[in-house]
Amino acid sequence: MVRRKAGHSIPVVVLGGFLGSGKTTLLASLLTFYKKNGIKPAVIMNELGDVGLDEIPSQLDVPVRELLSGCICCTMKADLAGELMMLTNQQPDVILVEATGAANPLELIENVMEASMLSPVHLGAAITVVDGAGLLQLRKGSRRTYRLLEDGIRCATHLVLNKRDRLYPEEMVELQQLLRELNPHASLISTERSSVEDSWISSLTSGSGKAVTPEEVSAQNRIMPDQACDCGLDHSHDEHHEHKHEHHEHHEHHEHLMAVSYYPDQPFDSDLFEQMLRSLPDHIYRVKGLVTFSDTSSRYQIQYAFKETDFMPVMPAPEVPDVLIFIGEHFSREELLRSLAGLGGNLN
Ligand SMILES: Nc1nc2c(ncn2[C@@H]2O[C@H](COP(=O)(O)OP(=O)(O)OP(=O)(O)O)[C@@H](O)[C@H]2O)c(=O)[nH]1
Fold it and tell me: Where is the chain membrane-spanning (predicted)?
């Protein structure tokens, strides 16, 4: 990759994909590559919850802006534009934007395009990371959530079919066919732990420096901007687009997905905690957190996505209180509270 010359437009790479698909894991690979190759990235991370738990290792020395408790495709659209503008002052070679797993991808791409009118940035690539097993599960589940996933696949310039280790060979074939049907034009790779080749990373920004436009993305993928937006309004020439859009987003894209933060006020018993995770309903798709157990010596970072859980010991403990963030579709806060009551803590 050629380093950006002063005064040139900075490529923005959007990292999209549904909850828990592997976006942060991919972000880590990209940052390691950039560090190794003397390329200066900057990062915008967006979380639906009110605590940012996805830490970027400090040795990578990357400017990171966190946007919490909202989504940059709608309620935090203006914040995204502001953050992009601020980061350009630091003259990075590339800006990586990690979306929430609930973001509407086409809205996000449009928002980056709109920001490019105010700042020297352009959309370099739109990556969609797909959790193959999750996609197969959601295909049989909620229509609205599945449609969000389909939109993400359609809008991508680069598709990453991740969590290959969780798929049988015949499922891999089925998923590759499905992704190709939904988006015949994007590059498509399959990965484990979002592990990508250096040449693939270079391809994200090695284009002519010309922006990918939402119209190009949607035309390539045979969807029109108005079709891609669930509300069915034709926003393309609409002066009140922003207002309608925000209203729409609030009611259509996020109301069916909700995030609940829980602050434990005492350590959990690890067996009871695991039992609680196992008994979560299918439509709680994602849990992230930092917890202390009464029967272990270290604190743990918890990652739960589609019934698969990772516990990672955290040493030394970061200066963040114990917290659990549950994200899913129309789940009952009260039921969740009841199942957590035996473990100790406060619902936020
Ligand atoms: N089995 C398996 N797990 C993976 C793979 N890639 C990532 N994970 C795990 O999946 C979980 C979610 O990964 P993240 O990278 O945090 O996913 P994300 O898309 O950033 O999640 P959100 O931002 O919360 O939507 C973590 O526990 C990862 O370690 C993979 O290829 N296989």
Answer: 12-34
Nearest CA to ligand 1 atom 15: 22
pLDDT of residue 244: 33
Give me the percent of the chain exceeding a pLDDT of 90.
Answer: 43
Which part of the chain has CATH 3.30.1220.10?
A: 257-347
CB 35 within 8 A of CB 46: no
CA distance 268 to 340: 10
The reply to whether ligand 1 has any atom less than 6 angstroms from the CB of 165 is yes
Q: In the predicted model, what is the mean pLDDT of the chain? A: 80
pTM for the whole structure: 0.81
Question: Is 166 touching ligand 1 by the criterion CB < 6 Å?
Answer: yes
Task: Summarize pLDDT for 103-112 with one digit per residue, the tens.
Answer: 887 888 888 8
Specify the CATH architecture of the domain 257-347: 2-Layer Sandwich (3.30)
Q: CA-to-CA distance for 140 and 77, rounded, in angstroms?
A: 32
Ligand 1 atom nearest to CA at 162: 31
How many Å lie between the centroid of ligand 1 and the Cα of residue 88?
A: 29
Atom 2 in ligand 1: residue holding the nearest Cα: 163
The domain 10-252 is placed in CATH, from the list 2.60.40.290, 1.10.287.1260, 1.25.40.10, 3.40.50.300, at 3.40.50.300
Distance CA 105, CA 310 (A): 27
Render pLDDT for 177-186 as a digit per residue (tens, 0 to 9): 999 999 999 9
Cα 50 from chain centroid? 15
Ligand 1 mutation pick, 14, 15, 21, 327, max ligand atoms within 8 A of CB = 21
What pLDDT score was predicted for residue 118?
84
Q: How far apart are the first and last CA of the chain?
A: 45
